[in-house]
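Schema walk-through. Below, the input block comes first and the output block second. Nothing else is stored per chain. Lengths vary across the set, and this one has 123 residues.
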Amino acid sequence: MHNVFKGVVLAVGLAVAAGAVAEESVGHFKGLAAPDLETAVSNFSEYNNRLETALSGELTDNDLMTIHKLTYTLENALEKINIDLEELAQTLEKVHVASETYNRDALKEAGPAYLKTSRTVIK
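--- output ---
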């Protein structure tokens, strides 16, 4: 799944780069913030849908500008998702080690923390 995200980011990057070659100067935008994982996942989903719609046509200059604006929110969301998924991998390792070593107390702490975060990403 991580490669899918990279592919989307690469495709968007190529589209933005092509637009940057155009004679018009491209502005920079802030994008929506992703202060927590739930917001990041929601923004990522919504803005990927918007990107898909924008990519479905002939890609006018206006479409390129729309895509450029969308990428700021997608980048913010993806950054937060990547940070939290790295932390999730570390929590899963705690679950793994606790189960392997029969450490029930550690498992009771790490297990629910893992599930809470993982269910934010995939229900």
